[in-house]
Design a protein that fits this description.
3 domains; binds magnesium ion; alpha/beta; binds guanosine-5'-triphosphate; Four Helix Bundle (Hemerythrin (Met), subunit A); Gyrase A, domain 2
């Protein structure tokens, strides 16, 4: 494939010691030749993969002192000729040099275009390309490890292996349909069934592993709910060790939703403090309460807070009903005050929940809460060392789709449907798996994926 030459500033915006401008494409070296004056060297003598000191010049005017490196297409990120210009950090040198590169024939790269080229030129598959973005945005070391394993292609290998199995199965089925009279070993329902059952089990296992992968990548959405004034914002602040949310003794203090990330043993927790749920006529608070309910529904985990210093109210009862069927932890707060709450009742109604007494004010019970959250996430033993783990929602959904195709195919086998029917499901499974690694990928999907990247990557 022939491409034009793209360029972008590859370091973050803002002041820094150095900044890097990158070019990739067939004209990279030629453009460099027009704008770079190496110190004590001839341009033609510059070797690949070596850094050279010199000046970026425009019409004899020196723009900046730089270090420059040329990377050949055989060993670059994009598999094209690449030039990296290390200049002084800060917006002025970076912008000026970028403008010069552009005026000498390069085009400004779109978001993610360098990585897209690596994909299009076959250096990495789509799963690996997407993991590059995960690496950049990883919030904890566990998230980083998963993304790194993905970049190394462990998950892709597994998916490709499944896909290859299905392709050979399909080939066998097809031969039986097309050449029934030929003297070849005939495929049987038993054989198709056993191949598909094996596949069914391994894909289910991968889906199961990946549940924790998604949490580690995106954070466990943890929503603190409760009636007004129980101490939700105080808990948020205590867990973050920061006065992030406003705390007062006035019920209805929090009106908007506050979100912050925290890290519990490498699990990113997206902690969400919400407005206390109650009936209210206040227009602003009402919107806040509606939002709380919406977040409640989308939560991975609910922290339901009660105030031990007062008897249960209608609001508590209402929330309790909602919490029952949710993944949740119950916090009985303000245990430093005299207890007025009916603990026995709570223990009965929420008997299968973990109930933790706390005094957020005295920092009591917080450790127990953190331990419980950790146990809940790692409970189904996320083996992060497990290298074959998918963490990206798009991948997991496609894997689930492929799994559904296989279950359908198995059903067709069990009811001895004609081979054509089975073949359709197998074919769809192959397509869905191919979408994960990019073996079969449409243009617009590809564009959507790469547009999520940052500029210059
Ligand atoms: N005695 C005692 N007071 C607490 C404790 N935790 C929080 N409070 C107090 O309870 C009051 C309400 O705390 P907030 O954290 O604002 O409560 P909230 O649930 O966010 O309230 P809304 O935002 O109005 O829904 C404040 O005066 C806190 O200082 C505790 O463990 N013990
Ligand atoms: Mg609050």
């Amino acid at each position: 494939m022939i491409f034009d030459t793209i360029t972008a500033i590859s370091t973050p915006i803002g002041e820094g010691a150095i900044g890097i401008i990158r070019m990739s494409g067939p004209e990279s070296f030629e453009i460099l030749g027009k704008i770079f004056k190496p110190f004590n060297k001839n341009l033609s003598s510059l070797e690949m993969r070596k850094m050279y000191y010199g000046h970026i010049v425009e019409d004899e005017r020196v723009i900046d002192e730089v270090m420059v490196v040329k990377l050949p297409s055989t060993g670059s990120y994009t598999m094209e000729d690449v030039v990296e210009i290390n200049c002084h950090g800060g917006m002025m040198p970076l912008r000026e040099i970028l403008a010069i590169v552009l005026s000498n024939g390069a085009r400004l790269a779109e978001k993610g275009e360098f990585t897209k080229r690596a994909f299009l030129n076959g250096r990495i598959d789509l799963t690996q390309a997407e993991s590059v973005m995960d690496l950049i945005s990883a919030k904890t070391t566990r998230g980083f490890d998963i993304a790194m394993n993905q970049l190394r292609g462990y998950a892709s290998d597994k998916i490709k292996q499944y896909r290859d199995h299905l392709i050979s199965l399909m080939a066998e089925i097809e031969v039986s349909i097309d050449y029934p009279e030929e003297d070849i070993e005939e495929i049987t329902y038993d054989k198709i069934g056993s191949t598909l059952s094996d596949m069914d089990l391994s894909i289910l296992k991968l889906i199961d592993n990946s549940k924790s992968g998604k949490i580690i990548r995106e954070g466990l959405k943890t929503v603190i709910v409760g009636k007004p004034n129980v101490g939700k914002s105080s808990l948020m602040n205590a867990l973050l060790k920061d006065s992030r949310a406003i705390v007062t003794d006035i019920p209805g203090t929090t009106r908007d939703v506050i979100e912050e990330f925290m890290n519990i043993s490498g699990i990113p927790i997206k902690l969400i403090d919400t407005a206390g749920i109650r009936q209210t006529e206040d227009v602003v608070e009402k919107i806040g309460v509606e939002k709380s309910k919406q977040y409640f529904n989308e939560a991975d985990l609910i922290i339901f807070m009660l105030d031990s210093s007062m008897p249960l109210t209608d609001e508590d009862h209402e929330i309790m009903k909602l919490v029952k069927d949710k993944h949740s932890i119950v916090i009985i707060n303000k245990t430093d005050l005299e207890s007025q709450i009916d603990l026995q009742y709570i223990n009965t109604v929420l008997k299968d929940k973990c109930i933790i007494p706390t005094s957020v004010q005295n920092e009591q019970g917080l450790e127990a809460l953190e331990n419980e959250i950790q146990k809940m996430v790692l409970g189904n033993e996320v083996d992060v060392q497990n290298k074959e783990i998918l963490s990206n929602t798009r991948h997991i959904q496609l894997l689930k789709d492929a799994h559904k195709n296989i279950v359908d195919a198995l059903d067709a086998v069990k009811s001895s449907m004609p081979y054509d029917f089975i073949e359709v499901d197998v074919k769809n499974a192959i397509l869905n798996l191919g979408h994960i690694t990019g073996e079969s990928v449409e243009e617009d999907l590809m564009n959507t994926i790469f547009s999520n990247f940052c500029l210059g990557k």
